[in-house]
Structures are given as C-alpha cells and as structure tokens.
C-alpha cells in the first residue's frame, strides 16, 4: 500500500486531500481537442477520450492547420487565423487546460501559421506565410531567433523526439532540417541558421511532418499535395522510401505503436499502410503497396 495512505479497520482507505489530489493528477487522461480554422465563434472544444464527456470550451479561437498544440500537458497554445488582405501582425494565445480565459497573448510582427514546441515546453516555434520562422522562449516570451526558412509559406513545423532537430515544410515542396543547438548558440546569435538537410523530392506543398518516437526516433515521415508520403532518415539525410496515392494527401497520423500510417486524402478517404522504415534498394521508386481504405468522410 502507498505509505501516504492509511486504512481503517473496515478496509476503507483514507489520506489527506493533497495526497489524494496528487495521486489523481498522476493518472493522465487523453483528451480530444478540436478547433475551427475559419470561424472565430466556433472556438476550441475539449472532450474526454475515454468517456466522451465534454470537458470545457474556449469560445473564441480560429487556428490555421498545425496551429494548435498542447504545451507541457498543462496549456493549449494556438496561432490565430489571419484574414487575407487584412493589416497588422499575428497573434498567439495560450490557455490553461482548466480555464477558457487566455493566460498569455502574444502579438508577433506578422501572421503565424504552424506552431510547435519542445517536449519540455521551453521553446515555441512559429512559421509565417512569408517563409520566415521564429523561435521564442516560452517562460519569458523573448524572441530568440528569426530567419527566412523557406521561399514560400511555412505549413508544418515539428521537433525530433530528442528536441535536437527542428523540421520545417513549406508550400515550396521542400522539407528542411535545422539544428537547435546551432540555432540557439548565444555566441553566434547574430548569424542566420543554416539547414542540415534540404529535401526537394516532393512536387507540391508539404501537408504533414511526423517524427517517429521510440527505437526509430531518427525517422521522419512527410506528406504532400503531390499524393505521396516519403520516409526519411534524420541522421543520414537519406530518403528511405516513397508511397503514392491517387489523391492529394492533406494529413497524416501514426497509430500509438507506430506500425500503421494513416493518410487523409482530399476526397475524404483515409488510407492505412504498414509503416516499413527499412531502406529500399531504390528509395526514389514510388511504391503502391496493399492498403486499407476507410471511407465515410465527404
């Protein structure tokens, strides 16, 4: 039995309110967070994945694709949709998970699309339609670095599992890998970052970037409107394999065991493929392996 808890003679367990609260907090729950990318009035809604219960609602928010994230499992952070043709900069709001009021509001000099953060929640990065990328220190809100990462709009930003690499994807069809260690070198704060790798094998806009976790943490999956996903080795920079679909791919996701890759297409279909990360003899050759197709979306 937990030494902080005690037992009555009849078998009932008791403990201080603080002790019981800590035990409850240690039991993590999964939640589904949904946000509109068009209507500010739709806001953000959060449901419990186990029970389906509605947990809470943030009434005013519209975030672009890849613009919403969970920060340290304690906060929600979202860049806000910037209407085409409107003037002014961008905005990023941060809310605690138990309150609908924004704890922090940040106003960058230009509109921000995708955002991503390190696992420890120390750094937040954002990408702009101009192709510029920004790195902030979350605790202070200080802008640490900004640079021209791509020639066209940034669509996706992700960190590698160990937070050492930042990966960016753009409308220019290029995926680039950046070293966070070099980027945050304070002795060289005035210089512009240079990428480790720049992959231009996709023929259209990048729509998704997925770093794998666990034992295969050096692998990244990218998807594109060209109807393909590609698997890359983050250490060597090599293309491992490529898979083609009949429709543009707009989103990708991995199952928790990282055995299946789910690819959402422009016509509403979801394709499920076994994720084989071994190097093919000809990785540039596009494969069309057997797959499961899920339908129902329109």
TrEMBL record:
Top-level taxon: Eukaryota
GO biological process: DNA-templated DNA replication; rRNA processing
The WD repeat ranges on this chain: 147-180, 216-242
GO cellular component labels: nuclear pre-replicative complex; rixosome complex
PROSITE patterns associated with the record: WD_REPEATS_2, WD_REPEATS_REGION
Keywords (A to Z) from UniProt: Repeat, WD repeat
Name of the protein in question: Uncharacterized protein
């Amino acid at each position: 039995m937990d030494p902080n808890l005690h037992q009555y003679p009849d078998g009932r367990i008791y403990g201080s309110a603080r002790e019981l609260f800590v035990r409850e907090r240690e039991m993590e729950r999964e939640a589904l967070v949904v946000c509109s990318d068009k209507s500010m009035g739709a806001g953000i809604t959060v449901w419990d994945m186990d029970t389906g219960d509605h947990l809470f609602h943030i009434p005013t928010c519209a975030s672009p694709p890849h613009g919403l994230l969970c920060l340290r499992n304690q906060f929600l952070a979202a860049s806000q949709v910037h209407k085409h043709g409107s003037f002014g900069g961008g905005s990023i709001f941060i809310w605690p998970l138990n309150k609908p009021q924004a704890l922090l509001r940040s106003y960058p000099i230009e509109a921000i699309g995708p955002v991503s953060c390190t696992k420890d929640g120390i750094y937040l990065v954002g990408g702009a339609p101009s192709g510029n990328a920004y790195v902030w220190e979350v605790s202070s809100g200080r802008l640490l670095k900004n640079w021209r990462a791509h020639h066209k709009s940034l669509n996706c930003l992700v960190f590698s599992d160990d937070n050492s690499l930042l990966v960016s994807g753009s409308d220019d069809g290029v995926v680039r890998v950046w070293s966070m260690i070099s980027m945050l070198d304070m002795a060289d704060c005035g210089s512009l970052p240079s990428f480790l790798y720049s992959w231009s094998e996709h023929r259209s806009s990048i729509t998704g970037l997925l770093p794998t976790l666990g034992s295969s943490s050096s692998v990244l999956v990218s998807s594109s409107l060209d109807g393909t996903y590609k698997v890359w080795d983050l250490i060597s920079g090599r293309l491992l394999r490529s898979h083609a679909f009949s429709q543009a791919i707009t989103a990708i996701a991995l199952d928790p065991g990282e055995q299946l890759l789910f690819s959402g297409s422009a016509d509403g279909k979801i394709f499920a493929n076994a994720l084989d990360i071994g190097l093919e003899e000809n990785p540039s050759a596009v494969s069309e392996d057997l797959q499961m197709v899920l339908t129902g979306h329109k």
